[in-house]
Design brief:
DUF5703 family protein, elongated, alpha+beta, three-stranded antiparallel beta sheet, DUF5703, 35% strand
Length: 65
């Protein structure tokens, strides 16, 4: 991807075609729930593989000292 927004970090999950869709969905939901990721894009690739692109906002913390 080009032109990524610097306020976000990205995670790309690729799921093999032999993996069940329910397993892939569970993995995406776990990342979203526990890692605070949000699903940005999903695509079905040639050969049946699936790619999920997730993002989350980068938390910048200022020093207080």
């Amino acid at each position: 991807m080009t032109g990524r927004d610097e306020r976000y970090e990205y995670l790309s999950l690729t799921v093999a075609p032999r993996e069940k869709i329910a397993e892939a969905r569970t993995r995406v939901k776990e990342h979203a729930e526990y890692g605070k990721w949000e699903l940005m894009r999903s695509a079905v690739l040639y050969g049946g593989a699936r790619r999920y692109v997730m993002r989350r906002r980068i938390m910048r913390v200022d020093r207080t000292l």
